[in-house]
Amino acid sequence: MKYNFDEYKLRNNMEAAKWDSMGPNAKEGIVPLSVADMELLSPPEIINELVKTAEFGMYGYTWWGERYANAVQHWMKTRHDWDIQKDWIVQLNGVVQGLACACRAFTEPGDNVLLLTPIYYPFYTVIARNKRTLVESTVQLKDGHYEIDFEDFEEKAKTAKMFMLCNPHNPLGRVWTEEELRKIGDICRKYNVLVVSDEIHFDLIMPGHKHTVYAALGEEYADNCVILNAPSKTFSLAALCLANAFIPNKELREKFDFEVNNSGAYTYSIFGIRALEVGYTECADWVDQLNEHLYGNYQYFKNFMKEKYPEVWVADLEGTYLVWFDCKCFGLDGKTLGEYLRNEASLYLDDGYIFGDIGDGFERINIACTRQVLVDALDRFDKAMQKLKNNA
């Protein structure tokens, strides 16, 4: 079946966070390309299932059962070559909730939590709000490619209680290789640092790259980790508030599960459960075609910059649908640049500085949209930047 990735809907007045963030004066027809949810319709199989569920007419308390566990097992095995046991699953309302619960379950106030930065900004928030201490190991750009500085990482790991991994990495678009993950894991095991791996973008992998679930590296790695993922990025289901933690180590799982229940956020939507079940059992072809569409959008974006603005460096997109690009050549600090793009181009992106100080002057664009939406956005970018050059 050939799926349609050329259809989208304007989400004004739908209480969509990304759209409402444009403010009341946003121009009609403008599509924001910031927050990481898709401007593409979810798979028709999921839409049909949710309509049936809504028509049933009763929405009482819900808990996952055998059908749910079977669907999760099937997806992890067929898409990621990872054999899981059903009792490893701890259900969550979202991956960020999982990060926060891990912080409280496995560390104490003041403990050091290690990150590879720049990184998705809620990582910083979770650490700060739970009164833990942030320790950063900055990812290095070498020959146009982001790499981990393992010497620095090991020095920082010596002081840390927990390491929060993001794979694929947001916003850099890296898919960490098996070799890199083993180096990370060996260092963390050496210094007794727990690995909490956010793998929410794990299905969004570009050609030539392969995602490796951290726990699938081997029993010694699985015994010292928490894996977090969700169907939300894969199928555009963020509003259905459903995610999973996978914890092979029984002692760690019980501590984590206690914290989830202690937080009071342990009820789940029947719509999220049904969407996951259908997505993980019926929508593999849709995901394959989605990744082809995303890669085509990335190629279009990269070629546009190469032709029009060769001085703009664009990061390789290995995974996610989030493209990271360096705009320092335009001579504006990050905040001024973001305001200029919003005011002159009606272009709503995520400014790089929100991912850490090292991101200042970068922008992150969400390319999970139709090709025409991307073409229109880059046309506005071009006009705004030509105006900036002419006024310089």
Question: Can you describe what's shown?
Answer:
By secondary structure, the chain is α/β, with parallel strands linked by helices. α13 crosses α14 (371-391). It is built from 14 helices and 13 strands. A hairpin with a 2-residue loop joins β4 (140-142) and β5. The radius of gyration is 21 Å and the shape is globular. The chain is 42% helix and 14% strand.
How is the topology of this model organized?
Layout: H1 17-20, H2 44-56, H3 66-80, E1 89-92, H4 95-106, E2 112-117, H5 122-129, E3 133-138, E4 140-142, E5 145-147, H6 150-157, E6 162-166, H7 178-190, E7 194-198, H8 219-222, E8 225-229, H9 232-235, E9 243-246, H10 250-262, H11 270-282, H12 284-308, E10 313-314, E11 322-326, H13 334-345, E12 350-351, E13 362-366, H14 371-391
Parallel strand pairs: 2-3, 2-6, 6-7, 7-8
Antiparallel strand pairs: 1-9, 4-5, 8-9, 10-11, 11-13, 12-13
